[in-house]
Design a protein that fits this description.
The chain is α/β, with parallel strands linked by helices. Helices cover 38% and strands 30% of the residues. The protein has two domains: 243 residues, 3-Layer(aba) Sandwich (Rossmann fold); 61 residues, Alpha-Beta Plaits (2-Layer Sandwich). It binds adenosine-5'-triphosphate and magnesium ion.
């Protein structure tokens, strides 16, 4: 069954342009220039119940905006979406009770209270029965390793501890769909790992549908079987991580160590120079040309060492995040059914 269905979802923000400085502020009191930002453009995808999908893209790509629409915080400009059969922005209680949104930069726990007090509040809000509440609280706290922290004032907790408490808060009412916006942002490596392991285990155990954004490659690698990549408000890739690297193995990486470094231009005719440092160069070369290029380079220059590697999927994603969406992705995306 489909948990999430999104069709041509679009969000255009209207913001007001303002010239800088005091003068700009005064002018804008009288004459405000409207400025449209197309945050999400014509996005369509579906997510099966129980799936854990990585939602990736560079800064400003439209990820948070999409999650906000899907959790009913903001209205779309046009397009359709359903989450568990409900239109999210109608904010029906029946849907609210079955979803949760966790944002890395935004806390829902009360700062001055121990987390446990906030959980009691959520218990009342979502009408979670006593026995179920206790059971879930204990099992989640144990999975997250935070049993000892529940009675500490939230403000006294470390960032990583707080995020674990936030996750517990989001899950106490057993949502069937979980939206996670950068849940590991800024956390130390140990906490990141713990949260990753928790999410994986939780998804497997409870079959909760999870849509997760993250800037950390480890999150993506460890968690998502499937990735949705959005760039400039549009979905440019929707398939498994495996497929992403397979598509990219249309080219290979030729790593060369020279006795004497040739100039960059003379190498660029063979392929894309990915790095050029010391005596080492890596060249991205179309797969079918690899052996010809290797032979030619060996012939022409004095080469100390040569290896041929697959292009790393992490690098592919990092490239997308850096905003230099490589051509093959766009081409591959258009082939996606
Ligand atoms: N309330 C708003 N008013 C105007 N523009 C906005 C608003 N919120 C977001 N935007 C713009 O919409 C675009 C998409 O923003 P969004 O926050 O969805 O990106 P994102 O993919 O979550 O980025 P990041 O990885 O940095 O979190 C950006 O250009 C952003 O500046
Ligand atoms: Mg965001």
């Amino acid at each position: 069954m489909l948990a999430i269905e999104v069709q041509n979802l679009t969000k255009t923000y209207l913001s007001h342009k303002r010239a800088p400085g005091v003068k700009g502020a005064i002018v804008s009191l009288f004459k405000r220039e409207k400025h449209e930002v197309e945050a999400v453009r014509d996005v369509s995808f579906t997510v099966e119940e129980g799936e854990l999908v990585g939602f990736l893209g560079p800064n400003g790509a439209g990820k948070t905006t999409t999650l906000k629409m899907l959790s009913g915080i903001i209205f779309p400009t046009h397009g359709k979406a359903t989450v568990l059969g409900h239109v999210p922005w109608e904010r029906k209680q029946a849907m609210q009770r079955q979803i949760a949104l966790v944002m890395g930069q935004k806390m829902q726990l009360w700062w001055d209270l121990p987390a446990y007090e906030s959980y009691l509040l959520l218990k009342a809000l979502y009408e979670v029965p006593d026995d179920l509440f206790e059971k879930r609280l204990h099992s989640l706290a144990e999975m997250l390793g935070i049993e000892k922290l529940l009675n500490t004032q939230v403000r006294r907790l470390s960032l990583g501890e707080r995020m674990k408490c936030e996750l517990l808060a989001a899950l106490i009412h057993s949502p069937r769909v979980l939206f996670l916006d950068e849940p590991t942002l800024g956390l130390d490596l140990v906490s990141q790992k713990r949260i990753r392991e928790f999410l994986k285990e939780y998804n497997e155990r409870e079959k909760t549908t999870i849509l997760l954004t993250s800037h950390y490659m480890q999150d993506v690698r460890a968690l998502a079987q499937r990735v949705l990549i959005i760039d400039h408000g549009q979905v440019i890739f929707d398939d498994t991580l495996r497929a992403l690297s397979d598509r990219f193995s249309a080219s290979k990486l030729l790593k060369l160590r020279f006795d004497e470094l040739p100039d960059r231009n003379s190498l660029e005719r063979y392929g894309q120079v990915m790095s050029y440092e010391g005596l080492e160069v890596s060249l991205e070369v179309p797969r079918e040309q690899v052996s010809r290029v290797a032979a030619d380079v060996l012939n022409r220059f004095s080469v100390a060492d040569i290896t041929i590697d697959e292009v790393d999927v992490e690098e592919v994603i990092r490239d997308i995040f850096a905003g230099n969406t490589a051509q093959p992705i766009a081409a591959a995306a258009s082939e996606t059914p």
